[in-house]
Amino acid sequence: MPLGGGKKPLTVLLQIDAFTSAVRADKYFVAGYFMRGYHQIALRGLGKALQDYDNAANFMRGNAVIDYTQLGLACKVYYAEIMFNRGMVQFLMNRQQQAFEDLAMVRHRIATTLATL
Questions:
Q1: Distance, C-alpha 86 to centroid of its chain
Q2: Are 12 and 48 in contact (CB under 8 A)?
Q3: DSSP label of 68
Q4: Coil, helix or strand at residue 106
Q5: What DSSP element (H or E) covers 65?
Q6: In the CATH scheme, what is the homologous superfamily, with its name and number, of domain 9-115?
Q7: Which of 38, 45, 91, 111 could cysteine-pair with 99, CB 3.0–4.6 Å?
């Protein structure tokens, strides 16, 4: 599936509203920022998507993964996934250097994780 999902604008707007409500209710809800960023891309709101991925990365607080299944949500958010999407947004914004830095960090994170398995 292409980044942003190729969904109809009204559906995307409704989903963005839902995730906005979620992050208003819990400003540390990483999955809300991550998913809202994903949907912002569909509307070409790249600056907003970048801000959401920045928030998601910051609220990971050094964790490699946040497992929301403990709270009854079928969702896990990985730091590397956030940074990959952020890198793609940077690339779409013609910020190649920042994009390459994000993607290099993702590569390093994945290699480090695989080395510990």
A1: 7
A2: no
A3: G
A4: helix
A5: strand 65-67
A6: Tetratricopeptide repeat domain (1.25.40.10)
A7: 91
| Position 6 confidence tier, pLDDT thresholds 50, 70, 90 | low
Q: How confident is the model at residue 109 (pLDDT cuts 50, 70, 90)?
A: confident
Q: In sequence order, which residues have a C-beta less than 8 Å from that of residue 110 and are 6 or more positions away? A: 80
List the domain boundaries for the chain: 9-115
For 30, residues 6+ apart whose C-beta sits below 8 A from its C-beta are 56, 59, 60, 66, 77, 82
pTM: 0.86
DSSP state for residue 70 in the 8-state scheme: G
Amino acid making up residue 36: R
Length of the chain as a residue count: 117
33 closest CA partner among 74, 71, 86: 86
Read off the pLDDT band of 116 (50, 70, 90). Answer: confident
